[in-house]
Amino acid sequence: MKKRTLKVFALLAAVTLLFTACSAEPILTENYRYTEAELKSMQLAEYVYDDNAPSLCDAFADYFKVGACINPWTFSDTSSDEYKLITKQFNAYVYENSTKPDAMHPSEDRYNFADTDKLVEFAESQGALVRGHTLIWHSQVPDWFFYASGNSGEPATAEQLMKRIDEHVTTIVTHYKGKIDTWDVVNEVINDGGGLRFSDWLKIVGDYDGDGDKYDYIEQAFISARAADPDARLIINDYNMEWSEQKTISMYLAVKKMLEDGVPIDGVGLQMHIGYDTNIDTLRSNLEKLAKLREINPDFVLEVTELDMNCNGWDGDPNDKEFIEKFNQTYSDLFALLMEYSEMGFIDTIMFWGINDANSWLNSSERDNYPFLIDRENKFKSAYWDVISLALD
Ligand code: XIL
In the chain, where are the structural domains located? Predict the structure, then answer.
């Protein structure tokens, strides 16, 4: 809907609301269906499932998929508000924890596909894209990978671990061939200060092929994934590239070398766990650096894989005007930048790391966080409207 049309609707809605209020009718009756303009005019409107209500993924359909991480219980009750929210607002899904190595492959001879099978089935019923997160990570990975078989306590050999990586990746990716669109093949392999993370994977495998670099375990994971499902998009995923030039350059150099060596990496995933006061110019310059990987692979892409905006730096009232203005501005500037990268053909998927403020991993027992466009009661924040209006311009 164009802005002018929205304005006319907003005016009509304001008159209707005024009239309704004056006639002392309850504004929100159970079956009341909001118009987009009414929701906008109320700004903090309650989420209601309604074919006429706006939706993030519909608004940005010309730019990218807009997805969210969910959990098996998020879609088990089709009458829950969360179910309505995820089916309306998002058209891409990833599990928050259930596709990680500890969940999928708890012991050497046991795979657990049941939960992820359900995600795939659910996404299929919604015509949504599915991301697989993640095959190789230093965290949420069972110890058995790194030990020789039995209870000897001996570490695994490089050869044994390379075989296990191949078997693990091949088995899982083959099971979801043609069903999981995109894999975070490896997660967080770059060190915060630059270089490769000194994980158990790296320590044990090292420079396996003797070519002078230690990308070997990463290379194996990508090669096995490509062989198991040639059509799946294969991503190297990491954090802090939104602000750290050093980490971005390390990622660039690692991927450049691997691409030159023929390793099938399709794109870099930026987790995008950012602060509400993130410097968007720095982010832009880091995206520019990663975009140069197109010089080696002309189809190279970037993805936003785990977006949330940490508000812990704000010690004041979250309803404070100054805070809300900053939060809204950062979200708008971010989406404007991502839309530019979509128009250049680099970004076609943006995933939020949660569906509303209530279920974010950033909440702690000490304090609540409020990192999303949708609040803890499933109300749209003003930032939601600011972001949506970018797509309607
Ligand atoms: C987090 C989950 O949100 C938490 O529930 C879990 O306890 C720890 O992992 N980067 C990632 C995600 O790649 O897998 C992490 O998810 C958040 C940081």
Answer: 1-73+267-290+304-393, 91-238
| CA distance to 262, 266, 274, per residue, from 247 (Å) | 23, 19, 15
**Span 34-48, mean pLDDT?**
60
Using DSSP's 3-state secondary structure scheme, residue 150 falls into: coil
pTM score, two decimals?
A: 0.90
**Helix residue spans in the chain (DSSP H):** 3-22, 36-42, 56-59, 81-89, 101-104, 114-126, 158-175, 200-205, 216-228, 245-260, 280-291, 321-343, 382-392
Does the beta carbon of 97 lie inside 6 Å of ligand 1?
yes
d(CA 244, CA 176): 34
- Catalytic (active site) residue 322: no
pLDDT digits (tens, 9 = 90+) for 246-284: 999 999 999 999 999 999 999 999 999 999 999 999 999
Does the beta carbon of 360 lie inside 6 Å of ligand 1? no
**Phi and psi based region of residue 136 (left: phi greater than 0; alpha: psi -120 to 50; beta: remaining):** beta
- 202 is written with which tokens? 């790296």
State whether residue 382 is helix, strand or coil. Answer: helix
- Active-site pick, 36, 188, 229, 303: 188
Check: CB of residue 106 under 8 Å from CB of residue 118.
no
Architecture of domain 91-238: Alpha-Beta Barrel (3.20)
Residue 122 half-sphere exposure, CB side, CA atoms within 13 Å? 26
**Does the active-site annotation cover 368?**
no
* 343 in catalytic set: no
